[in-house]
Amino acid sequence: MLALLKLLQDGQFHSGEALGGALGISRSAVWKKLQGLERELGVEIFKVPGRGYRLSSPMSLLDADLIAQASGRVGWPVSLVTTIDSTNAEVFRRLERGVKAPFVLLAECQTAGRGRRGRVWVSPFAENLYCSLVLRVDGGMSQVEALSLTVGLAVARALKTLGVAAVGLKWPNDVLWEGRKLSGILLELAGDPADVCHVVIGIGINVNMPVEATVSIDQPWTSLRQCLGGSVDRNQLAIELLQQLHIHLERHWQGGFAALREEWEALHVWRGRTVSLTAGQNTIVGAVLGVDVRGGIRLAVEGREQVFSGGELSLRLQHDS
């Protein structure tokens, strides 16, 4: 079906005869594959007698070979799947099968995309970027301290390179534009936390997602299409993202988050704002002072500075902030 979709991605009309000739199949087989595209991938196809078939709008499919070649010195193998439950979940399965890190996995669609704290990440076909990078970490978990902030900074730099000037960072791992979520990051660990382990870095970026997706998203969101006023080439975004990840991860391994803290703070959009921090059943209200060298959030709580860190914390703006 993907070969058929590549023929249709230009958004122009193609006759059933021409499509069948290009694929070496009959017109009836073409029709069955078109039905499969609509049913399995949710792709909308217009059918006009005498003219043929076309997509409702042009589509830019990902090209793993192009991304790997254009990423230059990064050197991470890149693979692409059409549909998967979750790129992070598939990375773990590949590690269990003995695939060696590092490598990158991209997907056109996720059926069970995940965000932090068990949230669903909406993942329509060929609209956004769903990317997981796995790295081997020697020497224990201390090296991944504040890594989600470093990854968020790399994502923000990639988006700025593409022209998203007002991009900002929200602790611990959200990328925002005008207060709305543009990208999220999910880090997961496998292996011995005291010795050799793997860190799986999952990144979701809203690229060309249509407004209709808002029906299943429970927070303010935006996409690069809305930020920039037009469709974005997802291959170009993937290439820039991998390059920025390589640059910022190298700086993190060499100097820790302390080497990146000042740059991260320059993009910190909630500094000075009053927030509520939720940890389990407990909620703490304070003013954001910034982050420390270990990536913890610094809050002024009842006149005293306190630092909080942890994967299960949730930070929200107070309504009167």
Describe what you observe in this structure.
It contains nine helices and 14 strands. The protein is of the alpha+beta class. It folds into three domains: 2-55, Arc Repressor Mutant, subunit A (Orthogonal Bundle), CATH 1.10.10; 64-266, BirA Bifunctional Protein, domain 2, CATH 3.30.930.10; 274-317, SH3 type barrels. A hairpin with a 5-residue loop joins strand 11 (282-291) and strand 12. The chain has helices at 2-8, 16-23, 27-41, 64-70, 87-96, 147-161, 224-228, 234-255, 261-266; strands spanning 45-48, 52-55, 78-84, 103-110, 129-138, 167-170, 174-177, 180-191, 196-205, 274-279, 282-291, 297-301, 304-308, 314-317.
Key attributes of the depicted protein:
Arc Repressor Mutant, subunit A, single chain, BirA Bifunctional Protein, domain 2, 30% helix, alpha+beta, SH3 type barrels, 321 residues, 3 domains, 5-stranded antiparallel sheet
